[in-house]
Predict the structure of LacI family transcriptional regulator.
Amino acid sequence: MRRTTLKDLAEMLQISTSTVSRALKDHPDISNAVKMKVKEAAETFNYVPNDFAVNFRKKSSKVIGLIVPEITMFFIPSIINGISSVLNKEGYHFFILSSNDSFETEKEHLETCINSRVDGILISLTNETKDSEHLKKLKEMEIPTIIFDKTVSQNIFQSIVFDNVKNAELCADKLINHGCKNILAIFGDENLEITQSRLVSFENRIKQFPGVTLNIIYCNSTDFVKEKLDIILNDDSIDGFFAMSDETLMGLHSSLIKRSLNNTNKKVVSISEGTLPKYLDETYEYQINDGYEMGTFAATQLLNSIKNPVSGTYEAETTVHHL
């Protein structure tokens, strides 16, 4: 069935489309009798206002584009919930595009957002993204954009990250305080800025204790963690483990279970969204990176940028501190 338009209602009632439009908006110049006829006809024929056309006239789509590297069970769902909680209250809608960790797909999604006339963009960059050159077009077109979680060095848009330095140092302290002497640290993609910031701070903290040995591995996925640990766990002297994320923690946990090492004196510490460790093993300690908190903060900052455009450059990242 074809969608009923303002023109259809006007022809049925033999009045102008402008009269129909004003009647639906309770304009004082329209009589109550005409308003009643128009509203009855609109209800009878299931008339639905064309929000896109209305917002287009206002030069606002009330739509936000959300681009993420991938949608997994780790972290991203809580970020989406945080974003949704803010945007819904402000009357905004948003659509989600997954780049599948492909830089080329990320660029295509940015074009989709531009062509969809979004009011703003929230983006977490892919592992393949090495610079911000492809984001300059957004700046030129004055499309407010916030980069969150996975970023690259740039001064075009505001970046929102967690305090990776502090979290990694606190995790190192937990292992040291537990008395660990031979620690295995599991990091993600070594080319990512988030990996490097956590690595440097964790390693520097451990180096302050000469009697502690640190072993480091890089794994791009949960399965890769399991593959590497199948060999490394032959070394029974490892008494402490650090996982830089929920994804690496899942691989570590699976490997410890396989070797029946989970209920021993070996200490496991991770940086986590906060939900996973509680269900894996209550002895696991973690520093929380609250995805919901990051989502609400990123969405709030984007709406502020939409309402109060700021020209110029951004010299530093904004750090989200867990409360």
About this structure: The radius of gyration is 26 Å. The CA atoms of residues 262 and 281 lie 8 Å apart. Residues 291-307 form the longest helix (17 residues). The chain has 13 helices and eleven strands.
